[in-house]
Amino acid sequence: RRSTKSVRESIFDFIKENGRTYHAYQAGSYLFPNDQPECERMDLQFEILKVLFGGRNYYAPLNDPRRILDIGTGTGKWAIQMGHEFPKAEITGTDLSPIQPEWVPKNVKFIIDDAAEEDWMIKPNYYDYVHTRVLLGCFHDFREVIRKSFRYLKPGAWMESQEYMPTIYCDDGTMGPDYLFAEWTKTQDMAAMNLGKPLRIANKLKRWYEQAGFINVHEEVYKLPINPWPKDPQFKMLGRFSEDSLLDGLQAFSLAWFHRGLGWTKDEIEVYLVNVRKSLSDRSVHAYHKIYVVWGQKPLENGQPPPPPPKPLEVDIYSKADRRYFDFPYAGPSNQH
């Protein structure tokens, strides 16, 4: 008991850098902070995606799963909600930071662990479902996470990834070539590539799943406005929360990346972000992020594919007949990249 406590105390000795704190376990491998402002932003981000997905936590057609793994669980909100939804299942959330609540359902546990390690210390064919969400920039090669998940899933079990594409998109010409928030995105991408932690993984997930051996691979793509520019009330609300999340997170998304990846000082970063924030809040630019949801199934061991999964539930917030997603033509889930 005491040795466990000493280990726990060491992982709470967070690294301080530029006024923010970062994880101590495997220090330096994750470039986003873990302090209270970032935890609150992650909780807001969770709620944004929950609304965007029509109240759903997952898309894979789960059938009485008993062992569920949430890689990079963050504040643990997803794992806790899954614990309530599947009381017979054992939900394990892993993360580099001990920032999860202590009071959780009995069937939910959190472990400080690094999914980048080769051996996950469990036997193969163990999990019924592996879930990842918003892990861009967390790994040198996310294909390795998919490959290892495939190994540790039972035959016929499912993996699912829900991921932001950091690229800024605009469909109606309102975003000019000098739009500062888009420039910031490219600067962050340059820093990420210098550090070997790619951010643009969302649009590659479907291909990577298939290359790893998954079958019945599905992809849905959503558009999430960066601020409340849409006329549609549902997406205006999502845009307002998205703007809050981005403004709250912009410093967190920049400090370690620009400092370690580009050699910028904290003062240089802060001065640069002043005008980036202004551009992010510019309602005249109809910009958005794409959110990718990809899920796939591990084949049965005898080489025979499992029976076809039940048809996924309708994923639109509105009915197919209602195209009021944005001011421009239908922009709901699609397979267009």
Automatic annotation (TrEMBL):
GO molecular function, one term: methyltransferase activity
One Pfam assignment: Methyltransf_23
Alphabetical list of Gene3D superfamilies matching this protein: Vaccinia Virus protein VP39
Gene Ontology annotations of biological process type: methylation
Keywords: Methyltransferase, Transferase
Name of the protein in question: S-adenosyl-L-methionine-dependent methyltransferase
Species of the source: Patellaria atrata CBS 101060
